[in-house]
Amino acid sequence: MLTSGLSLCFAVFLTLMLWLGAAANVTAQTLFPGPLSSPAIASTLFPDEIAMAGKPLFHFSGQRPDHLGAASGKFTPCPATPNCVNSQTTPTDQEHFIQPIAVRSNPSQAMATLKNVIQALDRTEIIADSPGYLYAEFTSALMGFVDDVEFAIDPAARVINVRSASRLGESDLGVNRKRIETIRAKFAQLEANSPS
Fold first, then answer.
1. Are 25 and 42 in contact (CB under 8 A)?
2. Band of pLDDT at residue 47, cut at 50, 70 and 90
3. Do 89 and 173 touch, CB atoms closer than 8 A?
4. What are the chain's domains?
5. What is the mean pLDDT of residues 84-91?
6. 3-class DSSP string for 39-85
7. Is the pTM of this model over 0.85?
């Protein structure tokens, strides 16, 4: 009984926080339509609100894993939980397997393009960037959950292998898979538009 009461309170709290955020945005757009809704003017009118923009309300980041890196070109396998995808997992493991990212350009250009894609995404921080390997942390908008995302190029296969895993919890509601597919699409678009 106590557990269900706490769950209900938490659900009401989250709903209220989401509603307040949406209401503040609608109010600003209504009071200051057009040019007045620009970030520069909004930051002058609502400095505290803008300071929080792009930052999660909570910080459930957990600890950075100690198994990151591509030892001999191989990532750590995904755990049994469904909150991880890995292009180096066997394709029969449909819960965790994801296709690697196809590459057209040379390895250094491909990794530079990938870095540009990642830096353009919200709430992202690149932690490690070395030749052929990139590791970034992605933070969720509301609760501040952190996902560890790794990329390692395989020049012979002309692909970038990927591993994206949530630090905490069990289910990610498909977030890690969707993120990699978004990165794949943006990367392919940039490669297609770049001179050969």
1. no
2. very low
3. no
4. 2-52 (no CATH), 84-193 (3.30.310.80)
5. 96
6. HHHHHHHCHHHHHHCCCCCCCCCCCCCCCCCCECCECCCCCCCCCEE
7. no
